[in-house]
Amino acid sequence: MTLTDAAAASDLNEVITAGHDQLWQALGACGTWWSGADRVAAIAEARQALRCELCRARLEALSPMMVAGKHDSISNMPELAVDLIHRLTTDPGRLSKDWASQVIESITEEAYVELATVICVQYVIDSYSRCLGAPLRELPIAGEGEPSRIRPQGVGDVGAWVSQSLDKSLANVSRAASLVPDTENLWRELVQIHYSRGPEFADLIWDRALTRPQVELLASTVSALNECFY
Amino acid sequence: MSLLRASSEALSSEVDIDDLEAGAQVENGDLLVRYAESAVLGHSDLTALREEVEDRLGRKALIEAAATVSAFEGLNRIADVTGIQLDDGLADESADFRTALGLDAYSGASSTKSQGRPGRAQNVMGIFR
C-alpha cells in the first residue's frame, strides 16, 4: 500500500467514524415518540437480541411463529416492542404484515417506525465495527426531554405496512421512515456516509477504492443472505 | 442486483448474477462475497477474510467493503420492517432475475402487489431516487 492510499483510507474511515460519533449521540436524544432513555434501552436490547435463546431457536425453525416463548430481555420496554427489536435484529427477512399489525396496534405506528429506525441506525454502526474488528461503542448518553408525539403532515397509505410520505419524488426505500422525520434524518445521513455520497450515487461508474460493480456485488450478497426482497 | 447489472454494463464488463455465490464474474468478487457472508453470518473466519481483503485490495477497499456491508444490513432491515413495495419500474427491471434466483419466494415479496413484466429500464438510476 502506498502512503497516499493509506492516507486516503484513513480519511474515509475518519469521515465515517466522525459521522458515527454524531449519529450515535443523536440516537440517545429524546425522540418524537420515545424518550432518550427508551431509545438507549432499545439499543441495549438490540445487542442483547444476539444472545437471546428464543431468537436463536426461532432462527432454526421453519417459521419463527412455530416457536413460542419469551425473549431474554434486559429492558422494561413493552413486550411487543422487545419482540420488534429482537426480530428486526436477528431475523428481518421473515417479518410479516400480520405480525407488524399486532405490534403497531400495541405501540402505535409512529412509535413502531421510530423504534425500528433507531435499531436500523444502531445495527449499521455496530455492523461496521464488527466488519473491521473494532470494539462496539459504549451506549449513548440518554438525552432529557419529553417526546412531542407530533405526527407530520403529508403522510398516508402508499401500500407499505406503515404510513409514509405521499411525495413520490423519492424511492420507497428512501421514504421508508418518513413518518418520523427527525429520526429519519439520522437514517438518511448514515446511508449517505456509507453508500450514496451525494450526486455521485447517480453515476454508474465510481472513482472509489472498490468499483461500483464490486460495491453492488457486496450489496446483493448481503441482501440475498438477509432474504430481502426489496 | 439491478445496480450490479447496470454498473457492470456501464464498464462493459461481464457479470453473471445467476452465479452470485462465486462472485458473479466481478473482479475479486469471490473474495468480496466470502467477506460479506462471513460478516453477515458472524463466522469465525471473518478476521482472516478481513486480512485477505486488505492484503489483496488495500485498506481503503476494506473500509469501503465494511461500509457497504453494514449499510445494506440496515437497508434490508428498514425495507423489511416497513413492508415497502418495489418501486414502479423496479418490478419490471428485476423480474427476470427474481424468477431465476427464486427471490419471489422471500417473505417480503408479499408486500409488492405487482410482480412486474420482464423488461429493462431505460434509466435504472431513475428508479433509485
Give an overview of the whole structure:
The complex is a heterodimer of chains A (230) and B (129). Chain A is mainly α. Chain A is 54% helix and 2% strand. Chain A has a two-stranded antiparallel sheet. In chain A, helix 1 packs antiparallel against helix 6, helix 2 (36-49) packs across helix 6 (109-132) and helix 4 (79-90) runs parallel beside helix 6 (109-132). The longest helix of chain A is centred in the N-terminal third of the chain and has 25 residues, at 3-27. Chain A is globular, with a radius of gyration of 18 Å. Chain B is mainly alpha-helical. Chain B has 2 domains: 3-82, no CATH class; 88-126, no CATH class. In chain B, 54% of the residues lie in helices and 0% in strands. Chain B is built from 5 helices and no strands. In chain B, helix 2 runs antiparallel to helix 3 (46-57), helix 2 packs across helix 4 and helix 3 (46-57) crosses helix 4 (59-82). The longest helix of chain B has 24 residues, at 59-82. Chain B is globular and about 45 Å long. Chain B starts with a helix and ends in a 28-residue tail after the last helix. The mean pLDDT of chain B is 85. Classes of the chains: A mainly alpha (230), B mainly alpha (129). The interface between A and B is large, with 79 and 77 residues.
